[in-house]
Amino acid sequence: MTKKLLIASRIERIEHLSAQVKRFSVRPVHRPTFPDTTPGSHVLVRHKNGLLRSYSLCGGTEDPGLYQFAVLRETDGKGGSVAFHDNTAEGDSIHVSYPTASLPLHPEANSHVFIAGGIGVTPFVPLALAAQQRGHSATLHYAVRTASAAAFKPTLQAIPRLAMELYASDQNQRLDVAAVVSGLAPEQHLYVCGPPRLLDAAGKAAQAAGLNGRVHLESFSGLDAAEANSGDPFTAYLSLSKRTVDVPANKSLLQALRSSGSGLDVDSSCEGGVCGACRVTLLGGDAVHRDICLTPREREQNIITCVSRGKGTITLHL
Q: Which of 139, 189, 192, 208 fits a 20 to 30 Å CA distance from 103?
């Protein structure tokens, strides 16, 4: 399937969490509750103008009829955050996907360490609440550009058993990621969400300390446009439409499918290999996976068309 099942919803409340961050509370229109979710999940949200974006859920699970997500206004982004900030009002209709568990608490850990960079703090609100409900201790290292930009600070400070350290760049406070990783106790797992530089630092520190299995990363950005749209040429055979699509070296598989004249309208959001919106079923062939959202098992039967490619000919269920 190229189109994801989306749930008709309505924006119930919009709140300013900081000068650049808004929280949106939404409820389903035609059903009493949303699908069950687990802490650390994300959803795809379609704005009324058609833009599709991926956001971590940042609310608790006590109200199954309510989803909450937060959006940082990025003037230099791809337009999604500006649309939600400047062209969205309470009462507006939007569509929300079924949730995907992208950063769950590890079942074998009884103590958790979180590292958040900026808006990457959003999944740690429900994760910290879940840790507290399980009787687990948790520590959050929260890096922001300015202290006033720390969204969710009051909420996080009110969570029992959560210790929070705030690092504000404008106050010359720097987070030492390597020190946090190397200081993990045997019973602790580390979860990181934020920009590429933060994830890269955490990944390198985990590898150096031999802790890869205890460090879990979630990105909200992936390959840039130049990387996503380049690679060796290959061919995609579409099994349902009995068509062949040639993918040149300077186009992504997603771009080639859309411009093939086959009438395909494949969903997409981040177009960097993060959110999974453009996933299609892979039936055969040698795929070159460059996403950061699929598990090794999922890659056996799926491909993320915005960044991943093929060798020779691959077969897709399209």
A: 208
Nearest to 138 by CA among 106, 99, 167: 106
| Dihedral angle, C-alpha 130, 108, 43, 307, nearest 10 ° | 150
CA 258-263-267 angle, 5° bins: 50
pLDDT given at position 16: 95
pLDDT band at 226 (very low <50, low <70, confident <90, very high): confident
Quick check: 280 and 300 in contact, CB under 8 A? no
pLDDT of residue 217: 85
pLDDT at 223: 66
234-238/279-288 β-pairing: unpaired
Q: Where are the domains of the chain?
A: 6-101, 111-219, 228-316
Q: What residues have CB less than 8 Å from 297, skipping those under 6 apart?
A: none
Per-residue pLDDT averaged across 209-228, rounded?
77
Q: Give 111's strand partners.
A: 137, 188
For residue 308 the two structure tokens come to 């991943």
In this predicted structure, the answer to whether residue 264 has a pLDDT above a threshold of 90 is no
Query: Is residue 218 within 8 Å of residue 192, measured between CB atoms?
Result: yes
What is the DSSP code string of 65-131?
A: T-EEEEEE--TTSSSHHHHHHHS--TT-EEEEEPPEE-SPPPTT-SEEEEEEEGGGGTTHHHHHHHH
Average pLDDT, the chain: 90
CA angle 115–209–276, rounded 5-degree value? 50
Q: Which two tokens stand for residue 78?
A: 């791809």
Helix (H, G, I), strand (E, B) or coil at 161: coil
Residue 263 has pLDDT above 80, yes or no: no
Residue 196 has a pLDDT of 83
The CATH code of domain 6-101 reads: 2.40.30.10
Helices (H), the chain: 80-86, 124-133, 153-157, 177-182, 196-209, 225-228, 253-258, 296-299
Nearest Cα to 10, choosing from 25, 23, 30, 26? 26
Q: Domain 111-219 belongs to what topology? A: Rossmann fold (3.40.50)
